């Protein structure tokens, strides 16, 4: 099972002007809203015998006259969620979708309708499946469409509500792990995100594949009952089981931090980039590090790092930070080596050194960038050029009261691929938010896209050696960016 983290999953597509949910293990797939033009693909999907015969309520054969269900029944609720919730959160004020502030509900209990119901290939846009989430208790009532469209009255807190999950896939996409990833994403990216108390799925007992998938995702089999089946789908009665799952209470949780048993080291997985990860420094990568830190577009923005960057400067990795990195790995992270995730790691009173300093291509082992998370002194920009301060500053305050800085660099050929944003997401979500409420200093545009707000500006003396090739005065304006997210909102 691939673990996923809710806050990182919901995004906004500027070109399509719509929200979508990423599938971390399938970067070419995403869950999006219904679009005009999906009609032919929907009819093909719902008329597949293995899809149509297992659906108790959906018409079969599925005809064009049934398609207004999407535009007229689901459309208004979908647009309401997008316009009132997701567009303000993801587009108008770009963030990593840390929490939903739903102001368009009719009452305080209302959970918004889930709009990203179509699984499609990206960038072709071809529809290859669907995933629905609707109010289970109301679906058997007199107005089934109200439940399907999230319009039924909600008289209980979200934690007391039950919402039903249903999904379908085109035949050529089955058996690839896509269905399991969709379940992971809908649970972490919506059900847990909104605090819905219970997810439910109804499955015929003869459908052992779906039953096995639900069991692998933590669902438990509950009551079974005999359901009269429509004549056009075979008639008679079918035994149906209700499978339910109750998400864990939100807490400090880390499902991004993993352990590589072969390399015998921890790593942070980069969502949307399954071949890339953050790992500790390894020997025999000095040439790659020198190339990175001597790249003009990297070093000109670094005030303190030496330039030219020579082999003697690599002692920062091999000698200075190595003991602290090894201490974190051996005393904290290695404890998770018997499991696939580090979600049960302790929350120490003192923030440990961040050891996952290398952005790495896992297949080749190549170093393609670096990332640092470190504690500055009282004034980050007035700090002496003693690099040891990055790791040995005494921690007077509790982690929640500390300010830590993020910096990162990426080789030129890996830029403009969204990698910088993924690195910031995983460092904040997979480490910093696990321990502290972080104040970060990083690239301004990317910072704004991740929900950081500009705190202050000031003039910083800049080394002469780093002023080539661009018209830069001896003092440059620097910006300090800090996150706008509330405490533990992730």
UniProtKB/TrEMBL annotation:
InterPro entries xrefs: Acyl_CoA_acyltransferase, N-acetyltransferase
Q: What top-level branch of life does the organism fall under?
A: Eukaryota
This chain's protein is named N-acetyltransferase domain-containing protein
What species was this sequence derived from? Dioszegia hungarica
